Amino acid sequence: MEAPKDLPVRLQDLGIGRLFESVRDAVLVAEADTGQIVLWNSTATQILGYSQSEALRKRWDVLVPERFKAQCRAGMARYRDTGHGPYIDAHTVLELPALHKSGEEINIEITLSAIEPVHDLVGDSKRLVLAIIRDITERKQTEEALKESEERFRTAFEDAPIGVALIGLNGRYLRVNRALCEMVGYPEEELLEKTALDLTHPDDLRATAERMRQVLEEGPGSYTIEKRYVRADGQVVWILSSVSLIQDPQGKPSHFISLAQDISNRKALEEQLKHQAFHDSLTELPNRALFLDRLEHALARIHQTGEPVAVLLVDLDDFKVINDSFGHDAGNTVLVEVAERLKGAVRPGDTVARLFGDEFAVLLEAPADREEVLWVTEKIMRHLREPFDLNEQEAFVTPSIGIALSESTKDELVEVLRHVDWAMYKAKEGGKARYEVYNPRMNIDIGERMRLRRDLYQAVERKEFEVYYQPQVELRTNQIVDVEALVRWKHPDKGLLPATQFITLAEQTGLIDHIGRWVLQKSCRQLMEWQEWYSAKHGSQLGLSVNLSAREIQQPDVAETVANILRQTGLDPSCITLEVSERIAMKDAEYTIGKLHELKDLGVKLALDDFGAGYCSLVYLEHSLFDALKIDRVFIHRERKNPEEWLTIISAMLSMARSLGLQAVVEGVETEEQLAKLREMRCEMAQGYYFANPLSSEAIERLLVEGTTR
Prior knowledge:
Layout: H1 7-13, H2 16-21, E1 26-31, E2 37-40, H3 42-48, H4 52-55, H5 69-77, E3 91-99, E4 105-115, H6 119-122, E5 128-135, H7 137-159, E6 163-168, E7 173-176, H8 178-184, H9 188-191, H10 196-199, H11 205-218, E8 222-230, E9 236-247, E10 253-262, H12 264-278, H13 288-305, E11 309-316, H14 320-326, H15 328-345, E12 351-356, E13 359-365, H16 370-385, E14 388-390, E15 393-395, E16 399-406, H17 413-429, E17 435-437, H18 444-462, E18 465-474, E19 479-491, E20 495-497, H19 503-509, H20 512-538, E21 543-547, H21 550-553, H22 558-569, E22 576-581, H23 582-585, H24 589-600, E23 605-611, H25 619-622, E24 628-631, H26 633-637, H27 643-659, E25 663-667, H28 672-680, E26 685-687, H29 697-706
Parallel strand pairs: 16-17, 19-21, 21-22, 22-23, 23-24, 24-25, 25-26
Antiparallel strand pairs: 1-2, 1-5, 3-4, 4-5, 6-7, 6-10, 8-9, 9-10, 11-13, 11-16, 12-13, 14-15, 18-19, 18-26, 19-20
């Protein structure tokens, strides 16, 4: 029997429509047999787009994409009239896309339920199906996002380049990634049977357990710790461990997330740098810094144990002869062998260090008495007197040794170092190849020299040096065309000291390397500041002359050092003149020529300083090494004693320089008369107090701005 055409109206009259309008979900009622929609609420219109009048003219399957209609029909089939009894008391829940009126697919959850026929009110026995529809698009999007998030987490967890693990509150591994397994050398199944503490190095167990306990007590948070794991093969791997405590939705601790980054290479590099910072690169002995640290600790222990300390300062006599005779490589070989012999002469636990150059130190802790100290010293003397084999040639080295004994709790580090320095100098003064034990009666002059030596070390650390400049003047124009950089020591007690009062000491201690490099770098930077405005004013570049000491010119990397400074400052190399004295040039001539060629290849100029004060082989001039000769001031000073001889010598030197194509600079000009005579001899360049004393950078800049000195 067909359903009445006014079935929707009659359902409305029964109040069912009003009931469904109050429901927040979409509701429709359809005939089970025909699929005709007979009831449609306003929420259904909002979700699916059809008005009620449009929907009541359609079958339910218009709302379902073609690919899902079979699934939906199967769900509706159970509610059709089969002639076998009453409706099934059940419902069907489906999740599938629905077709919006616009054609867009939306995700819905549809619950199908049977409606019992009410014959008396409806007047027919058509079976009806109630469909409650819920838009689950947002839920589906959330589920997809969660699924993607979980997939990303799984991928990130598994493919992370660092070790990642989930760890239970009891410390047991819950989940581990491949990187962690490879890091510790265990397969996953074996690692999951262990705890984080099982892998931790015994020395790091206490700190690791304490940090885990602390974060559990303090609540959600994280910590980072550097620790060691012991791999399955027994090797130790350093890791940077970052651990975070995770809580469950109820706010209770759930588990830890651990990130482990292998920092073994970094740790190895740190150890290497630490070793380099406290050890001499040539001999691998402790350097000055480490020696002083150990000495300070040894002196501190006197307060606790009362055990004495002895310090030996070992300086190799005339070691420069080895370098000059056999070369620097041979000299280094000797230094390495000296280090080995010193270690073989002392007791286990004593410290042998290389302080500077050919200066070594020995720390004897808790010697039995003075006699034991002297026994060790004599053993060192015997060991070092043995010949050194250098390319099938024998070389000999003798040491001068100073000894300082410290038995009092009042002895301070600086005092002990001063005493041993005085003792060593006294040994050298007494004829070398001997030792002296410090006593307070040692000559006060030695003490003053040692204080200056100590102050020089401190001056390097405290940066007490300054660069002064003396102009070189072109006599034709009276213009300053070059400045010579001269180092000064601003001593805290003695005031401003000229180089003559400390350069020799700096060379003996090896500090000249640092000082010379600093002077070149400082003056080059200063020249760069002056260059722009000087060039704009004069149409030419200002020159800079810098002295190279004997020790500097003998350094294997002298050219590299100069090149680095030029590169850092951006200076044109042709602006720089490096001055080398005659005495320096004549030492180890073949080696020196090679180094001068390396410098010349950089594009800098070379000047032979103090020319005429010593003797110089013309081989240097034949090699076209030098660009200028600086005639020593001693000849200018002869002008008052023997004017005719002075004129003859200066004139000859100037003529020689001109014939060789070298620029001549006469040093030491102090009077108007000297200057006039130099001009008569067509001297091009001069330098001296007549023009200006060595001046600070500020004062010389004022002269440069004026352009002349007179």
